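User: I'm curious whether this sequence folds into something compact or stays loose and floppy. Could you predict its structure so I can see for myself?
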Amino acid sequence: MAAYMLAKMGGNEEPSVADVKEILGSVGAAIDEERIEKVCSELNGKDIDKLIAEGREMVEKDERFHAAVTSGGGVGG
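Assistant: Here's the prediction. I'll summarize afterward.
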């Protein structure tokens, strides 16, 4: 996900699997092609800023999760 976001921030509107693999490979990170394909297929064509805002809104609505994230703790069950 982070490599996909880096590609988007770099101006690539629709990062491909190859783009993400190149970023991950440049730092010696493990490459899971199946996961990369899933991220690319689910996010390409979508407004990333809107998705982040929606996710932030969801976290803020869930007080227990919000408290754990803002305090640095984990979310237990």
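Summary: The radius of gyration is 15 Å. The longest helix spans residues 48-61.
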